[in-house]
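ok so heres the complex, two chains, lmk if somethin looks off
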Amino acid sequence: MIPPALPRRVAAFLLQSAISIAPRDTLDWGHAMLAELHHVQGNWAALLWSLGSAGVLAKHALLSLIFPSRNRPTIPSGGDLFSKEGPMRKPALAITASCVIASLLFFVAPVFRQAFRVSLLPWQFVFETDYSRLSPELQSIVKKAEQDHDAEALTFVAFRHPQSSESARLADEAVRLDPNLSWVYAFFARRSSLPEIDRWIPVLERLDPQNALPHLITAQVLRGNVPHRAEDEPPAWHSAMAAAFESAKLDTYSSQRKALDRRVLIRYHVGDPELIAGDELFYRRAPYGVSDATSYAELVLASAQVLEAQGDTKAASEKYLAIANFGKLLSPDARVWFWENTQQAAYTRLAALAAKSTRPEEAAFYAFLADRERQTAAQESSSRYRRFIGNRVARWDADLARRSGAVMLLSGALLLATLFAVFLRSRSLRLSSLRPGGLAIALGVSSSAAFIVSSVVLRLSYQPYAEILQHFIRDGDETGLNNLRDFLGHAYAPIGSGWLTPRQDYSSFFWFSVIVLCALALLVAVLRYFQARPRANATT
Amino acid sequence: MSPQTLRVLERFAERPTAWRYGYELSRETGLKAGTLYPILMRLAKFSLLETKWITTENGVPPRHIYRLTPNGMELARAKQTTSRSGVRVRRTAFSGGQA
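and the predicted structre for the whole thing:
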């Protein structure tokens, strides 16, 4: 329950505070408003009175800070009487216009337009209502690709299409145009709900009979989306996994996919970083089939241990070797996820069996491999956390880019609103007849300065990632792609969601505040300089 | 000149010699303090408005009161005349020339 007199007390306090910051020439008026406050009927009405009055005093305080010695006429002179501050100041107009023109010139460069789009990523979730819609850039690619019968471009879009059925259609169309692209089916197998998978798996098997991948896809389709205990999986799942473990290689076709992406990017002059690095941004997926393979390997490991206990060391060794051999097929990033402990256990058991069979050299070799797996596991577990957090510099840059984009939006909106208000009040579109007040000038100059400063910051913070992108497209250099992914991943985070990140970096907030304060100080200094100059000219 | 300023001038012109309080003007014109005071300040700055402090009751702070200067009165009358003729012209236009 709010005490009835509280709003009036708050109102008096607020107005007294406003008087304390008011410039000298408005003190009388401040006290006049305060005196009237005692006669305002109603406590809430008194608070409203105080808010309005304090706003007037605060505006004058702000203007006197920016224009310390405003040269106000004391005698009315015709048209100047109700124009708020006299003719528009030329320096202010020049600053505003040059800042706006310079900022717009930034947009001429495609890299800056790209950076601006990236800086707006945090707002995408606010404005995007239909996630199943293809982006305009991809729409234009698919339209042109269908006209030109460009199978690779159709595949490029199929990889990125948000609708599974449409991406399946595009993939089928691409393979129909160019049967050599049948490997692309491997990438759609993740979407196990697609009915086309049953048709695609035999195609993949025929493409490369030695590859374990089609068997892993079969196992995933049989398992469905909900994983069970390996013992409870159907016999067909066990057969598929056994076939995968007997395969000579595991090719996920990722190098073919990157090469195809690059060719399409060059052909269609696409420079959108999201299209290149964005499709696996939100989660670092476990590489394909690793989950099934790990479940199956654990099952094999358990059965080998049973055989070993029963004295059938030959059969047990074969099972341990099958695990070890399949582990070697996995790429290092795949082994990071689940595999290392199983692989290590297989080597340890093989070493123990070799030692029991008095084969010391073989035992030492397997012990060495087991130890190497242990070391790799230790290194990977420490680097896994770092990988999860991502690159600190990329996070900083993404933070700068997001904030710069937000400042650009805000200052642009403020500038437009100010211009609109000035034109509306002047009721004319002629520049010579515009008569903005001090507040309008301050808002116009500061928002245009904020616009250009944020444009520069955005351009600089995005520059390294534009270069990474160009290196990848031009030379196929993938060294910086992880940094680009980290940058984009952080760029997606809404502003103010820093507390969600595993390790919060307060220093970035501190330095960002320092930059903003310095920019404001610079702005005030510039405005004071321009304010003082006409008076100096006038006295000479 | 803004419609709000015209409204304030009209109120002053109704009783040209009377001194008016800020709150009284606010209630009569329906303008909030944030709109009214900048208008009063501007009128006073251009010597169209007289201001003075008066003591009313014991324990109550002195109040600021306002009245138009002769220049202010002249301006108020001129604006009232312009405003009325503007209304007449508009009525004529809307009634197809039959005033």
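quick notes: Residues 438-475 of chain A form the longest helix (38 residues). thats all i got rn
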